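Async update (no meeting this week)

Hi team, since we skipped the sync, here's where things stand on the single-chain job. The sequence we agreed to prioritize is pasted below, unchanged from the tracker. I ran it this morning and attached the output directly underneath so nobody has to dig for it. Comments welcome in thread, and please keep replies under the output.
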Amino acid sequence: MAIGRVLYEHYLFKEGLVSFKRACELTPFDVKPHFRAGNCLYVLGRHNEAKAEFLLALEAAEAGGNQWAYLLPQIHVNLGIALEGEGMVLSACEHYREAAILCPTHFRALKLLGSALFGVGEYKAAVKALEEAIFMKNDYADAHCDLASALHAMGDDENAIKEFQKAIDLKPGHVDALYNLGGLYMDMGRYQRASEMYTRVLSVWPNHWRAQLNKAVSLLGAGETEEAKKALKEALKMTNRVELHDAISHLKQLQKRKLRGNGSGNGEAAFITVEPSKFKVVGQKTTLRPELAVALDIRAFQRITRLNRCDVELIKKEMSEGDVPVSYSGIGIPEKSIRKASLEVIICKLLNFLKPETFVGSVKAINQKILSVLDESDFGRVDLGMFFAVLAPLCGGSSDRRKQIAYESLLWRPVNEGSTQIKKSDAQRYIKLLRAIYIPSHGISEMLEIHGEADDSLVSVTEFVAMFDDQEWGFGIISTLLKLENGDRSRHGRHICATCRYPIIGSRFKEMKSHLSLCSQCYSEGKVPASCKLDEYRFKEYANETEAVKDKCLWFGSKGSSAGGS
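Output:
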C-alpha cells in the first residue's frame, strides 16, 4: 500500500495500480486497497473496472462497521464519478445523494449532485443542491458556473449572468463559464457580448473549434459578415466537421440574398408567419401543417435519444430475460415498478451502441419527456411495462412490430398476468399517456378527460391497433413519423428553402402558384418569404426528386396532348 501511494503521488498510475492490486489479493476484505485501485483505474480511463473496485470497497466498508464511517462518503462520491464516466448519471446521483446524507458538510458531493441533476434535466433540484454547496463554500467557481447553467435552463437569465460572472471573477480563465455565458448572450440576442466571450475562450483554449464556430455565428448576428467569414475559416483550420460546411453554405446564401436586396436588407422582415387556415394541400399524400409540426417534434426527440436505432425486438428480449420483482402502487395495484437508476441500466442495454457522453443526452431527454409523466407520484419509480410500451412506437422496426411490442409490453404488466388480452381501460390509459408525452399540445388535460365509463372488457391485438391508429384519439401520427424517418437523407439537388435558405433535406413542399419551395420545418411553422404574400397558399409535398420529375413529365405530357388536340 505504501509503495502504491508513493507511485500514485508521482503520477505513476499504472505502476501504483500493480501495488494496489497486490494489496487487494493479500487483504481482499480491506477497504483501502480497493478504494486506491479504483482511483488509479479511473485516472487511467478504465471506468468500468474503477466502478467494480469502488463497489468492492463500498461492500467492505459497509460490512466493517463504524471504523470505515469516515471513508464511506468519499467512496460514494468516487463511485458516482466513475458511473458518470460511463454515462450513468442517474445512478451517480444516488451515490452523491448518499454521500451528502452521510456527511452533510460535504460540499463537493452537493456540487456533483447538482451538476448531475442538471445533466439529466432536473433543474429545480440541481439549483437547490448547487446553492447548498455554494452556501458551504462561497468561492467554489465550478458550482457558480453550474448554478448559472441551471438558472438559464429555467429561464432566469439575469441571475444566470450574475452567477457566470462570479465564476469568472473567481477564475478568470474558466472556459466553461466563458463559453456558456457566450451561449446565454446569444440566446438573448446580445451578439456582440457573445462574440467577446468566445474570443476570451479562444485566448485560453486556442483550438476550441466550437467557440470559433459560435464566434462566427455571433458576429453574423451582430451584422459583421466579413469578420464572421474570417472566424469560419479559422474554425475550418481546426476541424473539418459537417456543421462548418453547412454554416458556410448558409452564410453564402444569406450573402446572395442581401445582394439581391431581399428580406431584411431594406428593413423588412425576412419572412412572415401565415395562419394555418391559409395553408391548403394538393393531393392526398401531402402532410397537413399541424400534423407535420407534431411529427417533427417527435422526430427531434428520436434523434436526440437515438431510439430509432434501437431495434424494438430488444424490448421484447428485455421483458423475457429481465427479472423485476412485483411491487404495489399507492392504490394497491400490482406493478413491476423500478427506480430511475435501475431503469437507466436497462436503457443502457437498449442503447448499448452509444458513447457515454451521447448516452447522457439520451437519458436527459427520456427523463424530461417520458419519466416526468410516468413518475406521477414523484417518488423516483416508474412502471416498467408502461415505460416499454411508451418507448416501442419510437424504436426501430416496422410499424406493425412497434404496435405489437407495445401491446405485449402492456400484457407483460402484473395487472394483466395470466391473460392473453389486455383490458380496454388499460389500452385507453396507455394511449392517453402516449399522447400526453408525445403530443404536448393535447397534453395532460387529455389525461384528465374520461370518454365514457371505465371499460374492463378485453381488447385483442387487432382491436388495440385500431385504437392506436385512430387519428383523433389514438397515435395515428406514427404514419407521418415513419415518413420522416424514411426521408431523413433525401436531398433535392440544388433546391434550397425559400425562407431559411438551407438546402432542403427530407420532404420538399412546393407552393403551386409562386413555385417557391419550403423545407419541412418552415412549412410546419407557416413561414414564407416576406416577398411572397398570397391570399391562399397551395402546397404539394415531394418526398424525393424522382416524384418531382414524374410530376413535371405528367404536366408536360398533359400540355403536349392538349396542344395536339387543338
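Quick observations from my side:
The CA atoms of residues 103 and 269 lie 57 Å apart.
The longest strand covers residues 491-496.
Reply here if anything looks off.
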